Fold this protein.
Amino acid sequence: MNFELKDKQKLVRSSVRKFSEEVLAPVAPIIDRDAEFSWDTAKELSKINAWGIQLPEKYGGADLDSISYSITIEEISRICASTGLTVTVHNSVGAYPIYKWGSEEQKEKFLPDLASGNKITGFTWTEPNAGSDASGIECLAVEDGDDFVLNGSKIFVTNGAIASVLVVGTRFKKENGEEGMTALLVEKDMEGYEIGTKEDKLGMRGNPTTSLYFNNVRVPKENVLGKISDGFKIAMQTLDVGRIGIAAQALGIAQAAYEHAVEYSKGRIQFRKPISNFQGVSFKLAEMATNIDAARLLVYRAAYLKDNRERFTKESAMCKYYASKIARKATQEALQVHGGYGYMKDLPVERYYRDVKVTEIYEGTSEIMKLIIAQQILRGNI
Amino acid sequence: MVKIFVLIKQVPDTHNLQINRASGTIIREGIENVINQDDFHALEFGLNLKEKYGGEVTALTMGPPQAESALRECLAMGVDKAIHVCDPIFAYSDTLQTTLVLKEVFDKIKDYDLIITGTKTSDSSTGQVPYQLSEALDIPLLTDIFSLDIKKNIVACHRNFGHESQNVEAELPVLLRVGRHYNEPRHISLLGIKNAFEAEIEMTDHACLNSPDCIDGNMKSPTRVTKTEKPEEMKRKKEFLKGSTSEKVQKLIEIMQGHSIEKIWIGKQHL
Ligand SMILES: Cc1cc2nc3c(=O)[nH]c(=O)nc-3n(C[C@H](O)[C@H](O)[C@H](O)COP(=O)(O)OP(=O)(O)OC[C@H]3O[C@@H](n4cnc5c(N)ncnc54)[C@H](O)[C@@H]3O)c2cc1C
């Protein structure tokens, strides 16, 4: 067992950290304040291949391993969680399923533009009546000659306002009577595709979340992803991958909060001493550091298993559950260490506190993570 | 095709540097090694020239085995090749021994047009190697340059020399020492990193040199470090200026002139 990162992974960390501190740090508070996605930043991210981190080189990706992927998301999110969200959703639940289940024609059509960041993607399953219960979706695609005619709506679509193509979960009905769930590649330019208004959110404000409406959208059959009836399986396996990215994102936010807390506590003098001299404060730092270390090991293990084994459903649910939980706690404690200053928008800790919460919600709530972990355990995957 | 060589050095990361108070030396344990900051600018300069004129950029370092990671970083940044000059007998080389090794290496390479270095390294700050190496190789040295044109075998460059801006020409091959203010090193891409770790690094050791006899870092370095001291800490001074704004400005200018600052700009007005 090896707890040291490889030299390549260390270089990923130092390079993405430098990029994030120089390029993302100035825009992070602004895109949060204005709730605006930054296309200029997207172009900068293209230069370091952040839109195709694990895609093969032949499609324009960087072909990196999953631990390097986690490190990249962690380092971006340490500076700007909104950007971390845009990037991880694009890579892990947008581009990844196209690469994994797409036909060669689909890959050639979509992946080069996605890897370069010319086009942005995402994954939309959630509907007004189907959240945690992913099997409850109502969008319906009815076979009609060479097309499926899609009707219905989606909500809470990450990258909704900026995506050119999305992996869309829907029910299908074929002319021969066959029914089931499928994943379709739906493109923004298709007629009847309508983007709803942007949600006004607590955090992750630099990432545009919208609803989507499909009014008789004709989706050609060549846009069916994988086997037509495999939609649910594709969604579940995609989320196994996506959750590692969300956990890495939580980890990055926690790390930022922790670093700020350490620095601040050493400089803030009360009762004629730096407040870090008080155990009431320093024990918070000790807890944060320990929790972050433990979460990081869980995240990297899940990433390692993804690269080396078939099954990592349990481990990816565990790392997301744990990292998001300790990250929420770390941001809360970091804010507390800052006292009243932490509550003000002049310092970034209040942003971390707002941004982090949703990591316990999207790509499956913490309750659903526990449900998955328990199911796995009780099926014998102890 | 322009053959460009960029000399780089791995140094301890000065961001978290600690000094052993008793011995006055740098504590190297637990300190990350990084590429000397100036050398990133030299690399960027080399890569820009390649993008403009075509050719090939090679990063070259003389250093211990762990300097490999610095060369990987250069490859990730976009250089085409990397050469690692490494042998236990090169250890403890001073700048002169380093120069002699580098001269030997370039005598073997033969086919070089531009050798680019940074201004100095952050660990010892002598800045001697570019001067010595240009003497040893008997090629022109151009310092403080910030832009450059190559026409056939002539380089024409702008250099900043004190308050002067000079245009200088020289015949290839030349050694260029670039400053850190004239470019902004590019960010390293993820694909660059992936490719860097698949590339071969060319190794050169003592046995590869044409005339190895004059080389022995430990025994033949004429430099002796007799003592390292921390400079006395300067006490900060403060002074509150009184009066109207223009009186305060006038007073401030007087104070600054008292510190032999020659030129003072206020807005666009040159005093
Ligand atoms: C900012 C943001 C971005 C999002 N982006 C996307 C996206 O890009 N694509 C996408 O498809 N979705 C996205 N989502 C949706 C997200 O995945 C869902 O919000 C989430 O899965 C929860 O669904 P819900 O909101 O309907 O809550 P509900 O399912 O209604 O849950 C409400 C509460 O009940 C609990 N609960 C539900 N069922 C159980 C159970 N069986 N046992 C115990 N507790 C239970 C939940 O844990 C939760 O606490 C996003 C959400 C947000 C907030």
